[in-house]
Predict the structure of Elongation of very long chain fatty acids protein.
Amino acid sequence: NTSVVSILNNSLMNALLKCLSDRRTNKWPLVSSPVPIISIFLCYLLIIWVGPKLMAKRQPVYLKPVLIVYNFGMVCLSAYMFYEFTASAWLARYSLLCQPVDYSNSPNAMRMARVCWWFYFSKVIELSDTIFFILRKKNSQLTFLHVYHHATMIFNWWAGVKYVAGGQSFLIGLINSLVHVVMYLYYGLAALGPSMTKYLWWKRHLTSLQLLQFFIVTIHTTYNLFADCDFPDSMNTVVLAYSISLIVLFSNFYYRSYLVNMSASITPSCGQICVN
């Protein structure tokens, strides 16, 4: 009996994927084969399905210390990635209009590839957001937006690291890392308790910041689709479609939360506004 894993690893499609992949990153953890990330994705869906049922008759788990460490830890990781994206791009004199991938083993090209991998891995870590919701019985936060974004980001950046670890994809990682510094700082402060509430008046602007991010990515990617730039159009097409889908979803969230229900007290959560 041939297992599903064997079929994936020995298929013609998998051979093609390996042929087209970035030889520098091809053997890195969670990159060489799609099997590990697909397994993580399936486990993620299983947790979403089973978790709330297991917690139904249990008390919410007290996670305050864990959330404080987690959120501020993500602030540090995001700040590190923002610095690495910025420094690597600056040293290589990256162009904001058109930047092909440097597939060489030069120190700076490898530095950019490594931070792309860390960014990808951070998206795997951020699946923990969902687990925390379930353990705290915050099932209302398990929205389509939350699950869609968390689940798809891991695949997007698996492909990014495997095929285009660098080049103009750096801009997405750079902007998103900066946004996550602000976002996880908010959640870290919020996790400290009610005493911090008066300092968190800017929660509404987190969604605006997210939308600004998507509009920048959409404009940048649209330009590159029509420009004579040595960067895969297939990647640009996927990024463009994905960023537009997030603009639609986040705009809908913003409209319902802040325009329709202006008088309601709605606290955005990572499940609602988090872009990993």
